Amino acid sequence: MEEWKRLVRDTVNTPEKLAAVFDVDLEEIRRIHKVFPIRINPYYLSLIEKPGDPIWKQVVPDSRELVRTGFEEDDPLGEEDDSHVLNVTHRYPDRALFYVNYMCPIYCRFCTRKRKVGDPDSIPDNNMESGLQYLREHPEIRDVIISGGDPLMLTDRRIDYIVGGIRAIEHIEIIRIGSRVPVTLPQRITPELCAILKKYHPLYINTHFNHPREVTPETTKACGMLADAGIPLGNQCVLLAGVNDDPAVMVELMKKLLQIRVKPYYIYQADLVYGTDHFRTSIKKGLEIVAALRGHISGLGVPHYVVDAPGGGGKIALIPNPIVSFDDKEITLKNYEGNVYSYPSTPFYDEDW
Questions:
Q1: Where are the domains of the chain?
Q2: I want to staple 320 with a disulfide (CB 3.0 to 4.6 A). Which of 156, 202, 273, 291 is the partner?
């Protein structure tokens, strides 16, 4: 049996299995598991150093997941409203998200799709072809994001069928895969999988490292194999209280990502998803982290800090305001050290001067 399949087979996916590994309140875990299931494979479990650490918080159930604050929703981004067939979300004119799997290597406690992940009824087996047909019938779509769950948890044969089916559609130019597999089950990245993906360029993978301790020899090898197959890698992390809401932690993470050939792409403000309120930080904290990155790491390592607007409004980038004052003649700017500089706001040859 391949190592990744053994790890999937031996996954902690019941309260009883979790209680056999850690000293947890079994009845409390059972109560949470009924609403939001548990899934932690042995590799990712091995990264936990102690209860409550940044890896633990991402995968071990917390009683606060069952608390509703009144601001959260099951589908805060309005994905279902933009899904004209069950597994295709078509929000932007030229882009679509193709939901192909309900399973993941781990179930992240902060997941924006907690309503779907782990639920086999969220994607019937016969729905893949209807999704492909929708993509064929909409020539305005030029960019497809394959998502889930995790697409790379599917078999090689299934991945080949899906990606090949999309690549065969003439008007689709770009294929992207969103996957935490390189981070949470790096053993799944095999030479055979890389050979399949390599057939369908231009293809990109956005993965999801949240903490420097997730950058291990195993994840380094997995990302290296994908990069060597010609696949550009980006990272989309989520700002999480108690996990990475520290400027020093984020600086270390971004530096490590560049070393393993993964381009920092986004830092997301945590979505307003039911069961995740305890993970959310203030916007001020996010801006503080972006300010800490700027000037202390090359621009290559500074991701966009974004809020995914509720109700399907899309991504809105936020930056620390560097503008001190501004008029038609001059703009006064503040750099990362707090030093102030003036700069012409219009060309010198402008006839208004």
A1: 41-318, 321-353
A2: 291
- Please give the class, per CATH, of domain 41-318: alpha beta
Alpha-carbon distances of 110 from 11, 121, 345, rounded to whole Å: 19, 21, 43
Of the listed 39, 75, 102, 108, which one is catalytic? 108
pTM of the entire predicted model? 0.90
Give per-residue pLDDT as tens, 72-121.
666 666 666 667 888 898 988 899 999 999 899 999 999 988 777 767 77
Q: Mean pLDDT over residues 152-159, rounded?
A: 96
Does 277 qualify as catalytic in the annotation?
Answer: no
- From the candidates 271, 277, 280, 305, give the one annotated as an active-site residue: 271
Q: Is 315 a catalytic residue?
A: yes
Q: Give, rounded to a whole angstrom, the gap between the first and last alpha carbons of the chain.
A: 74
Find the catalytic residue in 44, 75, 102, 104.
104
Distance of CA 246 to the CA centre of its chain: 19
Say whether 194 is catalytic. no
**Residue 142 neighbours by CB under 8 Å, 6+ apart:** 94, 95, 171, 172, 173, 174
The tokens for 228 are 């060597």
| pLDDT at 344 exceeding the cut of 80 | no
Confidence of residue 353 (pLDDT cuts 50, 70, 90): very low
Residue of 30, 31, 53, 92 marked active site:
92
SS3 76: coil
Least Cα distance to 88 among 161, 156, 159, 137 occurs for 137
Most confident region among 74-83, 244-253, 284-293, 326-335 by mean pLDDT: 244-253
